[in-house]
């Protein structure tokens, strides 16, 4: 008997997954609970075991292909021991929200997003395209009803809206002088490299890199980015971290500056609670959260990931250092769960010693704010009495969704963060 195995519900709110790697091929014999396929969702790889023992008859999705929950993955000849496949769950949980604040109306409010993760098969007369692609088509004078989508379920992609070849140039006019009305011929397009050209390599954009590309595109097309920068005298922070490190690192935990930044950010979010929020574009609402879940942008072999430190407001410097180290190590090893990579309310991005002078971080949409932390450099500064003295200086840059947060909000937030980092002893003086 042939058993049809379909993609199960692999996490709250997951509508589809990308097939990253098959561990079997057609004709292979597989035993129950042996590794069958690796599926990617929200930058987390989930290894799915075989539900049955038997012989693989056919694989129904290629590596790099997206499959919806409930979609057919593989058929297995189980020799008469088949059973019905589990039905996918249809009741994802939602995170607790403190307040739902209606976003200010706009002249052209964005249309509700048609998520690619839940797009049904294309039907006659229905155009599947994201709002920014509809705008792009209008700018290019393209009727979407005439475009054949190449995305999942017939969804239109940006590549489908690429301008077609230019029409043949009109014959050159024999007239000359002021009465000539023939436009100059357009320059011939530069030939693209052929498939046999050995000077380039074709690299499929798949897995984590494709998720990053989709998230970055959505963030830049939806949010109105605004960045505000502040310089911080971190001299006292440098001294305090050096004194604390010898105690914290007795437990094999490296103490970086990031735990101090997180505690300062928590103070800043208390002062500006609308920054600890996520935007619901479909309903034009801002969801403002009481708990602070800080995403930490982390470089991993396959691309940038953002593990989440939950309830950062309740944790000590040492506890934060331990959790950051654990998340980073497991993230680089590809061992984080989907739950550990989702649910953030504010994100911090830092390259440590390679943090550069300044960057304008892209929002981790649907969050509405992100903080960039840059390297600490030793430079002379003027003191209040006019004398020069060495100081450890660093820049902080906060990017906001300017649709719902004004620039003054970012400035006031960074003023609080700056105050706590320039006098970090305040971090230990607050009442619970």
Key structural traits:
432 residues, alpha+beta, OB fold (Dihydrolipoamide Acetyltransferase, E2P), Chloramphenicol Acetyltransferase, 8-stranded mixed sheet, 4-stranded antiparallel sheet, 20% helix, 24% strand
Write structural notes for this entry.
The protein has 432 residues and is an alpha+beta fold. Among the domains are: 2-77, Beta Barrel (OB fold (Dihydrolipoamide Acetyltransferase, E2P)), CATH 2.40.50; 225-428, 2-Layer Sandwich (Chloramphenicol Acetyltransferase), CATH 3.30.559.10. Helices cover 20% and strands 24% of the residues. The protein has helices at 131-139, 207-222, 235-248, 258-271, 317-332, 407-422; strands at 2-6, 16-22, 29-30, 35-41, 44-49, 54-59, 66-68, 72-77, 99-102, 225-233, 277-280, 285-288, 294-300, 303-305, 308-309, 346-350, 369-373, 377-382, 388-401. Strands 10, 13, 14, 15, 16, 17, 18 and 19 form an 8-stranded mixed sheet that branches. β4 and β5 (44-49) form a beta hairpin. The longest helix is centred in the middle third of the chain and has 16 residues, at 207-222.
